[in-house]
Amino acid sequence: MASPAIDSDEPLTPAGRLFLRPEMNQIIHCVLGVKNPFDIEVFKSQIQESFLLKHPRFCSLMVVDRGGRERWRRTNVDLDRHLIVVDSPVNSESGGDDEASVNEYLAEMSTGSILSPDKPLWEIHLLMAHKCAVFRIHHALGDGISLMSMLVAGCRKVGDPDAAASMGTVGSKPRKSRENWWQYYWNGFVGLIGVMWFSLVFVVEFLVKMLWLSDRKTVISGGDGVELWPRELVTARFRLDDMKIVKKALHDATINDVLFGVISCGLSRYLDHRTPNAVQEGIQLTGLAMVNLRKQPGPQELSELMNKNSKSRWGNKFGFLMIPVKYHKTSGTDPLLYVKRAKVMLDRKKQSLEAHFSYKVGDIMMSYFGSNVAGFLNYRIICNTTFTISNVVGPQEAIAIKDNPVTYMRVNSSSLPHALTMHMLSYAGRADMQILVAKDIIPDPELLAKCFEDSLLEMKEAASAIIKST
C-alpha cells in the first residue's frame, strides 16, 4: 500500500521487512482457551485497557514510502474491525471435539488467510462455541517472546485478581565456585577456545546449509512451494513434571535437552512406522530452532519498550540454531540415550555464536542487499532443512482474562516450506506442542503426536527407575 512518508513514520526493522516477503509472510496464532463463555463487552473493555492498544506498533499501518521502504504510520484503531466473533461451531463434523475444531480452523488460516493492510496487522477471533480466543498477529510486529509477554501482561493470577501473571524463565546454571585462581583462569581459557572452535564449525555448517547442501529426503521432507500445500494441525500434550523427572535422572540436563531428546526419539519412532527398515541408521534430519537473543520483557520492560526514546528496540531479535537430529532405531534402545545425545549437541551449540551470527547475517543482508536477497537466502535454508521447532516459556501459574480462567494456551504460525513445524508453549505445569504438517506429505499427524507423547512416557519410566535405584 503506497503512501508518502511523513516525519512521524518509523521504519520497519530488517527482520520485520523480511517477514513481509511473500514467501515468508508469517502470522503468529496464539490461542487462549477459557473456562466460561466470553462476555464480548467485557472482553472488549479488557483489550481497550491492555498493552495491545497502547503500543505504537499495534496502532500503526504498514505503509510504503516513495523510496519503496516500509514504514509504520500511526492511525486510529477501530477495535470492531479487529474483533471477529464466530458464533457457530467452526467444524460441524468434529463430533463436538473442541480441540479438533479449533486446530482445523487454525490449519486453514495457516496457508490462505492474510491480514488486511488497510488496518494494523492484527486480529482477534472469538470462537464462541469453543470458548477460545485466537490472536492473529503479524510477525513483523514483534517476535514470539515479546508478543507473549505483552498478551500475558493484561491477565491476572487465578484467585488473586490484583497479582500480575508471572512469565516462566529458563534459568541459567549456577556459576561454579572458584577453588583457586589458576583453575578459574584455565577454565576461562578453555571456555574461550571452545567458543571459538564451535562457533567456527557451526557457522561454516550454517553457511553451507544455506547456500547448497540439503538434508537427504525422507517421508517428512518438504521443499520449494510446500508452504502453499494444505495443512493439518494436531496437538501433542506433555506434563512438565514428567520432563523434570527425566531431567533429574541425567546429570546437569535441562528441559530443552529433554525436549530435543523427545523430538529425536519421536521422529525415529514415526519413521519406523512409516518406512520400516527403509531409513539408513544415523541419517541426519536438520531442524531450525529459533533462539531469543534478549531478555524476556515483563510489564515494566514492556512500558519501557513502548517509550519512543527507549534504548531497547521493540521488534524481532532472534537467531537460528541448526539442530541436527539423527535417526536411530527405537526397538530395544534405551530411550534416555536420545536425551543424552541431545544434551551433548545442545551443550556445544550453547558454546557457539551461531544464533548471533545468523541474526547478524540477516540484518546485514536486509540492510545492504535488500529483502530480495535476504528473503531468498532465508527461504533456501528452510528448503534445505527438514523441520522447524520453537519453545516459548509461558506463565507458571494459572491466569485469567478478567475473572475467566484460561484453561490452555497454544501457539503456531503460518506455513513454511517445511512439511513439519512444531511450536511448544508451556503453561501452568503443561506443555502443549502444536504440530503443523503438510497433510499430503504427513497424512497421519495424530500418529506423529502419539510418537512424541509415548517417547516422553518411556523416558519418564526409565528415569524413575534410575532415581529409585540411587
Q: Please, could you describe this protein's structure?
A:
This protein has 470 residues and is α+β, with helices and mostly antiparallel strands. It has two domains: 10-160, Chloramphenicol acetyltransferase-like domain (Chloramphenicol Acetyltransferase, 2-Layer Sandwich); 194-469, Chloramphenicol Acetyltransferase (2-Layer Sandwich). 39% of the residues lie in helices and 23% in strands. The chain has an eight-stranded mixed beta sheet, sandwiched between helices. Helix 8 crosses helix 12 (445-469). The radius of gyration is 22 Å and the shape is globular. The N and C termini lie far apart (65 Å). Residues 1-5, 170-178 and 308-312 have low confidence and may be disordered.
What is this structure's SSE topology?
Layout: E1 10-11, H1 14-18, E2 27-34, H2 40-49, E3 60-64, E4 70-74, H3 79-82, E5 83-86, H4 98-112, E6 122-127, E7 132-138, H5 144-153, E8 156-157, E9 160-164, H6 181-211, E10 231-239, H7 240-249, H8 255-274, E11 284-292, H9 299-305, E12 318-326, H10 336-350, H11 354-383, E13 387-393, E14 399-401, E15 404-413, E16 420-427, E17 430-438, H12 445-469
Parallel strand pairs: 5-6, 11-13, 13-16
Antiparallel strand pairs: 1-4, 2-7, 2-15, 3-4, 6-7, 8-9, 8-14, 10-17, 11-12, 14-15, 16-17
Helix pairs in contact: 6-11, 7-8, 7-12, 8-10, 8-12
